[in-house]
Write a structure and sequence with these properties.
Radius of gyration: 29 Å
Largest sheet: 9 strands, mixed
Number of domains: 3
Distance between the termini: 20 Å
């Protein structure tokens, strides 16, 4: 709430009153809320669902979100970054320049205006920021350049769930940097390292312990990392070695050496089996009365040199990033219609197709090159074969220039660690909160963004891309810090830092509540006063649910002793301490500073 002094024409900050702050709490757990953060954000009146994957932020939730954004802003500004704002609507032409406007990408929201012009709603901003830079930056003297924005991103999620963790619109900090060099002063790697350090400070100030893991992409693997918060409610998977020396996300996680052979003896005569109306590996395996791990999954891809056929075990998933590394170029899953016209029986392809089709390379994962029984597609619709044998079925095509055995699948729990330390990988669920990514020159080259270097030669700059999912961060904080009664907010991002609960908001109780709130607000703390005419039990339950770090309870009995009760939310149901009224403001400031040790520059260090 804001007040104004007409005499001096200055703004006076005043505490919020619950009755006017619009905090509609819920007693029951909403049926649609599956995880703790979603349940508590709804129950504590932080958000309300507008539609599938769409949430409105109510005042308490928006205050917390704004405080996280403020911490992000201070760190970005301290790095010398400049904030900008870009339109939510992006012309499709920009994405077409980089090839990101793929019609098969169903996660992009596409729009058409009254004149038939096509646009995309709220995508990642790489093309938009590169477009700005190519018209405003001509010389190496203008680099390095680091800009950022904090605004909405949109994604047409097929199955939105888990509240703000998997929504269709989310608040994200996106930053981009441009450099002529990767190393040295002002180089891309220096900025990536500074950004990683800044991200760690941001997460620390928000009360989250995050892990930095290897991520795929970029031209320099050391410059691409993600930040994960380990949490069972998360939908992302990270892998760590038992020794703790290796951390990677699913896309980037390597797998240790595995023995393999393409020369094992046949397990029987090749037998063709009719397998109609069986949509997947699980169904085919059940029909053949074998395990999915005994099947070969053969996928047709399109690469720079033509058709690429990749083979993994039936219970494994192909990793396109690893496949690209294996063939040394760009690779994407083939369009079914195009591949069908080229002679591939999609869904029923056998590795032996290399003998009859125009296949540039056959890439086999080591786990698919083992002794024993194998079943595979039969290269014709609705048929599979039993007793597939590599040497017999592929024969002379098993040449080193056409066939390669390489790690091309996603890691799974218990796989050998790539660190060769004899340990296994362990899969951990988590929430991805941020990314620091070396994007190379691909975007600049595609969009013809050129800068004059010191020798007056035109060169495309290197680009770094950085992001923090602010709403996911809020959800991660709640997942990590709550109890049976509600949220337990860290001091720096709580909607209000002090929650004042008068037993009855009248007389001396009201005067003391207003006085303490004024003193705390003047010292830089946010205060909400529960001025409702509700029973104390209701007020205390709502206070625990909302989870502000410090609570002051004021009643006639304690005031008769010249005291108020002060307690920390983190202490749960333990009793608070009685503090003399004249010492209450100071004691609250002490507790807030204990709860927020990393407060330099955040406004609490002087409370």
């Amino acid at each position: 709430m804001m007040g104004y002094s007409s005499a001096m024409d200055t703004v006076i900050v005043m505490p919020a009153l619950w009755s006017r702050a619009f905090i509609p709490t819920l007693r029951q757990v909403p049926a649609e809320a599956e995880i703790a953060s979603h349940q508590l954000m709804l129950r504590a009146g932080l958000i309300r669902q507008l539609g599938s994957g769409l949430h409105s932020y109510l005042p308490a939730g928006w205050r917390a979100l704004s405080k996280v954004a403020g911490i992000v802003r201070r760190e970005m500004d301290a790095m010398g970054a400049s904030e900008l704002h870009t339109p939510a609507i992006t012309p499709r032409g920009l994405l077409q320049e980089t090839g990101r406007d793929d019609e098969s990408d169903e996660e992009l929201f596409r729009l058409k205006d009254r004149f038939g012009r096509q646009s995309v709603l709220g995508p990642a901003p790489e093309e938009v920021i590169t477009d700005l830079a190519r018209y405003c930056v001509q010389s190496h003297r203008q680099l390095p350049l680091l800009v950022y924005r904090i605004q909405g991103r949109c994604c047409d999620e097929e199955r939105p769930r888990a509240g703000v963790l998997r929504g269709r619109e989310s608040q994200v900090m996106d930053a981009c940097s441009f450099h002529l060099a990767t190393d040295g002063e002002g180089g891309l790697e220096q900025t990536c390292e500074s950004m990683r350090a800044a991200f760690r400070r941001i997460f620390d100030r928000c009360g989250l312990r995050c892990e930095t893991v290897r991520a795929a992409g970029g031209t320099d693997q050391t410059a691409s990392h993600e930040f994960h918060f380990a949490c069972e409610a998360g939908e992302d998977t990270i892998f760590r070695s038992q020794s703790g020396g290796y951390l990677a996300n699913t896309e980037a996680c390597g797998i240790g050496e595995r023995a393999w052979t393409l020369d094992s003896p046949p397990t029987g005569e090749l037998a063709e089996v009719h397998t109609p109306d069986l949509p997947g590996v699980e169904e085919v395996a059940a029909f053949l009365k074998i395990r999915p791990a005994q099947m070969l999954k053969t996928l047709v891809c399109r690469g720079d040199d033509g058709w690429i056929v990749a083979v993994v075990r039936g219970d494994h998933e192909l990793n396109l990033h690893k496949l690209r590394n294996a063939v040394g170029g760009e690779v994407a899953l083939a369009d079914d219609e195009e591949a069908g016209k080229a002679g591939f029986a999609i869904g029923f392809v056998s590795p032996s197709v290399i003998r009859s089709a125009d296949v540039a390379k056959l890439v086999i994962d080591p786990d698919a090159a083992q002794e024993g029984f194998w079943a595979s597609g039969a290269n014709r619709m609705d048929y599979h074969v039993r007793h597939f044998n590599w040497r017999r079925e592929v024969g002379d095509a098993l040449e080193p220039d056409r066939v390669r055995v390489a790690d091309i699948r996603n890691a799974v729990d218990e796989d050998p660690s790539p660190t060769d330390d004899g340990t296994a990988l362990r899969a951990v669920k988590g929430i991805t909160l941020g990314r620091v990514h070396n994007a190379g020159r691909k975007c600049a080259e595609a969009m013809k963004f050129l800068v004059l270097d010191e020798q007056q030669r035109q060169r495309p700059p290197h680009m770094g891309c950085y992001s923090i999912a602010i709403e996911r961060l809020i959800a991660g904080v709640i997942e990590s810090s709550h109890d049976d009664d509600g949220i337990i907010w860290p001091a720096l991002i709580a909607p209000w830092q002090v929650h004042t609960v008068p037993i009855k908001f009248e007389g001396e109780v009201r005067e003391v509540a207003a006085r303490l709130a004024g003193e705390l607000e003047a010292a830089g703390a946010d205060v909400v006063i529960d001025d409702r005419a509700e029973r104390p039990g209701v007020k205390f339950a709502d206070a625990d649910l909302l989870g502000c770090p410090v609570r002051i309870t004021i009643g006639d009995k304690t005031l008769a002793e010249g005291c108020v009760e002060i307690k920390r939310r983190i202490d749960g149901r333990a009793k608070g301490e009685l503090v003399p009224v004249d010492e209450a403001s100071r004691r609250c400031r002490e507790l807030l500073n204990q709860l927020a040790p990393a407060t330099i520059g955040d406004g609490l260090s002087e409370i």
